[in-house]
Amino acid sequence: MLARKTVTDYAPAMATGKNYILDDQIGFVLRRVTQRHLAIFTDAIPEVTTTQFATLAKLAEMGPLSQNLLGRLTAMDAATIKGVVDRLRKQGLIETTADPDDRRRLTVSLTDAGRALFERAVPAAQAITERTLAPLSDEERQALQAILLKLA
Amino acid sequence: MLARKTVTDYAPAMATGKNYILDDQIGFVLRRVTQRHLAIFTDAIPEVTTTQFATLAKLAEMGPLSQNLLGRLTAMDAATIKGVVDRLRKQGLIETTADPDDRRRLTVSLTDAGRALFERAVPAAQAITERTLAPLSDEERQALQAILLKLA
DNA sequence: CCCGGATCGTTTGCATGCAAATTATTCTGC
DNA sequence: GCAGAATAATTTGCATGCAAACGATCCGGG
């Protein structure tokens, strides 16, 4: 009788891992695309980060908001939005006031400096989108937008 | 003569910022899609993070690699890959050895435990991709893959 | 052979991000 | 009107990520 190495030596489908190519995984590709976009953003708007800019943009769009709601509208959890709000306040771009109607709430609003920076940066932000999508045709851009919205 | 509030009160094109809707920006949508994927991943494979799994996958695919090259192949800079390697080594999933040919280099390789975990997790990883792309048709999946590759 | 540039790894500092626990406050059903 | 559930904000701990500066080593040209 010929020797078998171990009980696990039965080779079911051969090389489970060889078929898993990292570069084809959607999560990995998403990460690289996000990295490229972040680099373009930082180059164009060095004053604030992407999440900080998203916070300013949402406040400009909606007016003053409670900190937690602001976090939900910018896709940040309570811990993350707190840090972002703290840093923006330290830069004088936003301010926080107590909500007289709900003593748990902290109302966040743009300062004049924050609004001015945002208004100044909007053209740059549009250029960032353009640079990010530069490799795509108009049809591809529309397809991407539609598909990503289904995944968000 | 009627009073003007300030010199800035000339209203050039009206509401620069009103046209900037955060939810339509490609960077913001990308971030939300990435968040959703991360949540699916963490739910399916709690033992390691996405970047840690990417590291194991690349080592399984390519064999032992120097730490910096491993970082480049997994889209992490030198500082980031160092932290990931440290944590994986602490878990006993990889090991590092000095390169005899180049004393600057650190060779990173999978341990048996690391390879076993990766092989076990591959079906889960494929399920993660499936769950992430679940809202899409086959045509949309192919379109997304093609478009993202142009952007990466 | 040797010097200047390139590469490898490390460290520090800052900024997300998420999970989980905690406190304070508000709301809701009975 | 009041106990329990829900919500708001904070804090801690861990894990990416990037930028910049650094020392050690290697490599190529003169």
List keywords for this structure.
homodimer, 152 residues, mainly alpha, 6 helices, 3 strands, disordered N terminus, DNA-binding
Descriptive account of the structure:
- Two copies of one chain form a homodimer.
- Chain A has 152 residues and is mainly alpha-helical.
- The first copy, chain A, has six helices and three strands.
- Chain A has helices at 26-44, 50-62, 67-73, 78-90, 112-132, 138-151; strands at 65-66, 94-98, 106-110.
- The first copy, chain A, has a three-stranded antiparallel sheet with strand order 1-3-2.
- In chain A, strand 2 (94-98) and strand 3 form a beta hairpin.
- In chain A, helix 1 (26-44) packs across helix 5.
- The relative contact order of chain A is 0.11.
- Mean pLDDT of chain A is 90; it is low at 1-14.
- Chain A binds a DNA duplex (30 and 30 nucleotides) through residues 35, 38-39, 42, 49-52, 66-69, 76-80, 82-84, 87, 102-106.
TL;DR of this structure?
Chain A is mostly helical and 152 residues long. Chain A is built from six helices and three strands.
Strand content of chain A: 5-15%
End-to-end gap of chain A: 59 Å
Which structural category fits the helices and strands of chain A? mainly alpha
The radius of gyration computed from the alpha-carbon positions of chain A, rounded to a whole number of angstroms, is: 23 Å
* Mean pLDDT across residues of chain A: 90
Give the fraction of residues assigned to helices of chain A.
Answer: 55-70%
Shape category of chain A: globular
Number of strands of chain A: 3
Order of strands side by side in the largest beta sheet of chain A?
Answer: 1-3-2
Oligomer: homodimer
Number of helices of chain A: 6
Order of helices and strands of chain A: HHEHHEEHH
Low-confidence runs of at least 5 consecutive residues of chain A? 1-14
Main beta-sheet annotation of chain A: 3 strands, antiparallel
Most extensive interface: pair and counts?
A-B, 54 and 55 residues
